[in-house]
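carnitine O-palmitoyltransferase: structure tokens wanted.
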Amino acid sequence: MAEAHQAVAFQFTVSPDGIDLQLSHEALRQVYLSGLHSWKKRFIRFRNGIMNGVYPGSAPGFVVVLAGYMGRAKYVQADPSLGLFCKLGQYIPVSNYMSFETQRRVGGILVGTGLWVAIIYTMRNVLKFLLSWHGWMSERHGAATWKSRVWLALVRIFSGIQTPTLCSFQTSLPNLPVPSVKDTMTRYLESVRPLLEEKEYKRMEVLTLDFQKNYAPKLQWYLRLKSLWATNYVSDWWEEYIYLRSRNPIMVNSNYYVMDFLYVFPTQRQAARAGNAIHSIMLYRKKLDRAEIKPFLLQNTIPMCSSQYERMFNTSRVPGIDSDTLQHVSNSRHIAVYHRGRYFKVGMFYDGRLLLPREIEQQMERILADTSEPQPGEEKLAALTAGDRCCIGPVLVPWACARDAYLRLGKNRQSLDAVEKAAFFVTLDDTEQRHDPNYPVESLRRYAKSLLHGNCYDRWFDKSFNLIVYKNGTMGLNAEHSWADAPIIGHLWEHVLFMDPVKLGYTSDGHCKGQPHRSLPGPQRLQWSIPSECQSMIDNSLAVAQALADDVDIHIIPFEDFGKGLIKKCKTSPDAFIQIALQLAYFRDKGKFCLTYEASMTRLFREGRTETVRSCTMETCAFVRAIVNAEPKEKKLSLLQTAAKKHQQMYRMAMTGKGIDRHLFCLYLVSKYLQLDSPFLKEVLSEPWRLSTSQTPLQQPELFDLVRHPELVSSGGGFGPVADDGYGVAYIIVGENLINFHISCKRSSPE
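Answer:
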């Protein structure tokens, strides 16, 4: 292949006259440009590290402090060095190298710099103290009290004058507080009250009191100790025990999907859509590397933690026997592409720059035109990432076992590295998916299931995310969950959907704008040597994955009767309104209430991830019963307002570190470390979430003018059910008049 020759920097031949070197100037040029790009990236990271390290300080601030200090010392005729060099002169002959006046100036600069650092440290700690106050959350939007206004003004002042980068606020964010056991027990009993009969509730009260008296003090002491040592007492355990130590398939059970536009189809050309999308994603990575992405600020002032962005790219989950690990490389210059059972490595840079959309389309066209057949075992290799994670009992079950036995050496190792160390994974899918207005239910169901699991072997489910581009130009994402939560990948996807049709666009015949590259090396076909024993393990894993995929049912509802606009006119929180509606729907479906999970974020704290809002409350149940029993309208409206206020209160508590479930989870882990068997924790942690819900937030509404272009609405995304006999419900509030619901369950459920 031509690209193989261009990839060799030099060749040599041995003859009687000696060694004849044959240098390839083009290859050497590419090596030089690659190294230059790498050093530029290192410098940018070093610079950003310095800027974040001194934030909220800035270069102008340093000049002002230093000039002010030196000017004051000169005005009062004081020694700006504070006698620093006089003391050093007792041990080091400084006077031999510097005059007395130079010593005063250098010492003054050092003391002034120390003063600047002290000011930064003070501002940072004051800002951390200010951000620990959350009273502003209980106030109605647009009706802030004088206390909140003063607080906001102080936050802006102590945030400094420099424009913050993505991670500027990290060291100023407070640590997640450990709630008191008493408060957690009270809130837990309140959350299960609507779900238990009187006798069961009394029994749970006894268990709670026993735990609070006999077990909790010791467990809580260890948690408080961890909170003093670690930046977040939950997140590392949450990542390890909820995600990485799970031995079940991550397909459906953990990974989630994100959809394309609902009504807009920018191009019918698969390669062109892939070209614009891949280029947009790589531009986002460039902005992320340079810390040019704006930090997410509530009310344009209050910062949220940005630590989850760090592993968005160049990351893959690696299976282990007892626990998986997350492998992240600092830089990757290629992507991995799957098409018709073949794997390709596609470089994203040439001539020292990122490939343009038309050039990426050119590479995708080459892959689509490739007629070579898959190598033995290659086509369904990724089924290993869809099945069980390791050896269970005496029976060998992929994925960790197969990887360790057959993919560690030779070309298998090289090809596996190309996939796992790629910036991200791309699947050029041979099927056609999109919303069909003539068959909306079935078309969206097929589309969602394809994104969630595909054929169980055409997505690399361990990669941080997979970009799937279909034959008709529709696309979507499948994302692995352990490295970050859905809002992080949602931020990327909003950028892609904005760049694709709005900024980059297409020609009249559907191609990416621009011209193909005449001398661009083609994609590299990855080589595998997969023995028959490994192929048997692939088949076993595929059987597990297909059974799981066939069991999942998904229903997507674009609800257009009304949306956020009407709900807000009723002076009700849209999220609370939807959660109450879900409780009513579940009660009408099952005739009972259930333990309900709503994901809330704790990113107001450093390294915060999520907390659970238990949205089935006594107040919500009272409203549901009033609806079912056809109570008078005035009573139902009153109960709705009461239930919505209660839900908002619980959501605020979850966001501010006063939730129930993460605290109980950590207490349970400590009890296991100490080998203490608590009946209360054992029962609480085994309760099934039969209704698991999550809102997909629209984080960059300024990118989409849905008033002038209502067709640019996103379908949102979804996930599989958490419980075998439960529902998974994801929803996205789009504009003022649309709410998209993604509902999943298992066909095998007895209900």
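Residues 100-131 form the longest helix (32 residues). The CA atoms of residues 388 and 618 lie 40 Å apart.

Cheers.
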